[in-house]
């Protein structure tokens, strides 16, 4: 009798363990590519969502307050003020070291430059450009108040500027990230079926068509990419073709000069070079910082000196959302249905599918951004600073 009872209990225990493993396996496949690293992230989603669904009121208010702060903003404003006064904020060697620190993976190859020769520049050249560019002065002044309170709901509905017909929306949009997990898929044809395909930072498509497709309707880049384009005659920055519009956000003040230089070389046959609105940049920054702080609390349980403790794990002045995140936010504002490809990570995959980089940048919190993508797809009502103002998030699909 006792032996029979022990056997029965053993089978019950084995069945319970098998059921638990099956459930966790299912969840791992639901969210991201099933590798050990991603499996752990997916398996804890229920806990994270419970915290997001009913967080302590005081904690939420504190997270929102801290997400509004921008320690790097004063340095950015100082750079803008220097430009308005006709001064270079940094020597070229200092700028180069800063770029290598924040974007060490950015390098040029024939895909990016098409062997376009360099052109020489001098501080005098920069200052002359500022003196003859009142439109740049107006642009710079709008950037001195990046946290001005906008109607964020209307801001996201703006057509960004690259459409010939204002207000036109795209039925389906694909935002193609640069994650190495794309090499484990064959989504190329599926990506090209979308009405608008958005790509990031001039990522290569030639040779990777079966994984990432070949169609491109909008190129979203950060200003480090444009800075390198500006060193070439004609500001060659159109690997997808000169009819593909470029939308860009600014990483540092000195890049405004590169924007002016490249705009001065544009012609009627080249698609426009557009920049993101400072209010839109501020919205993206607040959302990502909120999720990063919240993830830190969930993982460490430390909420007493939250900003100080979180700052020990990241350089708060350099912390920034990724290009991919802002491209996704752009798609939310101009598309009726958004599909995400290449947003995720795996211990067995390269950081970028088209480079040999394996390590991600410390100034981004990719896991926090993955949580945002999941919430946009499954529970958009919990995303702060967004739906509370009346903006309706379109359907978001995540392809793993």
UniProtKB/TrEMBL annotation:
Membrane topology note: Single-pass type II membrane protein
Give the keywords, sorted. Answer: Glycoprotein, Glycosyltransferase, Golgi apparatus, Membrane, Signal-anchor, Transferase, Transmembrane, Transmembrane helix
A single GO molecular-function term is: sialyltransferase activity
Where does it reside? Golgi apparatus membrane
**Superkingdom of this entry's organism?**
Eukaryota
* Record's GO cellular component terms: Golgi membrane
Query: Which InterPro entries did the record assign?
Result: Glyco_trans_29 (IPR001675), GT29-like_sf (IPR038578)
What does UniProt give as the signal peptide span? none
What the record says about family reads: Belongs to the glycosyltransferase 29 family.
User: What protein is this chain from?
Assistant: Sialyltransferase-like protein 1
